[in-house]
Every structure is written in structure tokens, then in C-alpha cells.
């Protein structure tokens, strides 16, 4: 199928830095005079009053609406029913990936614009028009698409450094894969998240994302442990939220993200953070790409330095059975991103690549 257009999408405004929440009011006021703040109880308790105050200072009425914590269709409908009578101009989604997606879901249902405020740099959801819905067993149900990207993305790095370290490592994992997925999708002529061809800018952003992470991720991780905002931290947060988000959405995805369908269907691995799942899946994609052993070993050593899983055991799934390996492979093949690869793949190919990664010796300390 010929894709006639090259399309690049992005948020209207991206704000990043210490105290960004306190400076966001003038940008939000351009969207209207009233908003609903969707966040879970913990996030609301930590940051709700501050967000409401920042909005009020700019003349925006902000109504808090508490999210249960699980991004299932029923919860999105419940939240939408609470927000609908408020007749707000826009919705603010605040929190981790689930909180952001809950805000997007409500905005989508009510046909309102959305603002995202991540409290952890655990993924690139804040910049994207996509959001993910799960079923009651936490299996991926479907990916929904808003008609436009968020209007404003507010990344307060003073907040980001207070999040758990494993959330930060998950963000590195979600971002490090984009260089390779975008390259495969573009090479295969596959569609990006807009159903079109990728602009060269998307590939350049994915490459830049990788370069920044390889150069600065280890120092940034040390800074997060010390709860210290630094230049390295700022650069890595920009890579994991902005570069990664624009790169994947306008560049396209491939095997690494397709494997979340299989990994979320098996014990242990289903409970891993999204960024840890796709990081492990990158090693499988590299095996499918027939990368040299030294290249894969270098990536595994980098994973060790930034606390990313390099095996199913490290992902939370020791001693996988043959049946479970089959579930991973078959589930991966159900994802459309699997087709964004420069050769046709089968479940047997996936299983063989997983087996090759699992057969590698442990990474030395």
C-alpha cells in the first residue's frame, strides 16, 4: 500500500525545568477558563493543591477529579461522567503513564483538549496523542488515538527527581528502543502513528535520543538517586519524554513494542513496567536484525549500568516454559507493529530470537 503523505505531529507547547508547574499558568490560560484535573489519590495529595493554585493564579478554575489508578474502559467512562457536567474547557492529566492516559481518555470522550503533567519520566506518553486501555487482568486491550497531540506538556524536573528510581530506568528503556524501531519502520515503509510515512525529522530525533542516553543516562541515574536536578538529568528527561515521544509517534514502532502484547500475557513479565518490557524486547529485535554478537553484548552491558533487564529472569520471569515462550511469540505476532520490519517475521522467528537472548551468559559485574 502506498502511503501518500509524510506527517509529523507534536504538542503545541513543551515546558521543562525545575518549577515548570508554577510557570505553566499563562500557557494554560490560553486554552480557556476552566479545567478538570485527573490524577490518582497519591498524586492529588502530593501535587493537586499546587496545580490548582497555579491555575487559579492565571485565572483558570481547576476542579480535581480522582482517578482509581487502573486505566480500564469502565474507569474512563466513570471519570467522564463526573467531568461532563463541569463543562470544562480542557482536561489536565497528571501522574505516571496511567494518570496521563486517564486524562487523555476523558478528554477524548468529552472532545476536549488535554494538558499533560508527568510526575515521573517513566515513558513518553505525555507528548503523544495515543493512550492505552487494559482489561481487568491488566492485559493490553487496545490503543486509542486522540485527534490531536496534547496542547501543553509540563515536565517539572524538581518533581521528576522525587519519583522512584525504577520509574526513571523504565523511561530510559522506553526511549532507548526508538532509534531501532523507527529505523526498521522507515526501512520497511511502514506507517507511523498518523497512518502516514515518517518525515526524516522523526528518525533524526530517535537517533538523538539514543545518543543522549548513551552519553548521559548513567550520570542522570546517579542524580536521580541523589534527588538532584542536573544538566545530565535535564538532557535525559528531554530525551525520554520529548525526543522519544516525537520520534516514535512520527517515526513508527516495530518489534520492541509489539512484544508487549506477548510479554503482558505471561506471569512475571506482565507485572514489569512498560519501559522494562520494551528494553528487553529490544535485545530480541537486535537478534532478529542479526546484529553482531559484540553489538548485542555492548547493549547488554549498557543495560546493566542503567538497571534495565537483559533476560526474562531479570524481567521477573525465571525458567519460562515452552508453553510460555509460545505465548510470548504468538502474542507478539498479533501486534501490527510486527509488520514494520524489513523482512517478514513469524512466531517461530520470535521464539528463536528470544531463545538466543536467553542462552547468552550472565553479564559480568
Describe the model.
With about 375 residues, the chain is of the alpha/beta class. The chain has two domains: about 15-160, 3-Layer(aba) Sandwich (Rossmann fold), CATH 3.40.50.1970; about 165-360, Dehydroquinate synthase-like - alpha domain (Dehydroquinate synthase-like, alpha domain). About 50% of the residues lie in helices and about 15% in strands. The chain has 14 helices and eight strands. Strands 1-8-5-4-2-3 form a six-stranded parallel beta sheet, sandwiched between helices. It has a two-stranded antiparallel ribbon with strand order 6-7. It is globular and about 60 Å long. The mean pLDDT is about 95.
What does the secondary structure layout of this molecule look like, with pairings?
Elements: E1 13-17, H1 25-29, E2 34-40, H2 41-57, E3 61-67, H3 73-83, E4 90-95, H4 97-110, E5 113-118, E6 130-134, E7 140-145, E8 152-156, H5 157-160, H6 165-176, H7 178-188, H8 200-225, H9 231-251, H10 255-263, H11 274-288, H12 293-305, H13 322-333, H14 347-358
Parallel strand pairs: 1-8, 2-3, 2-4, 4-5, 5-8
Antiparallel strand pairs: 6-7
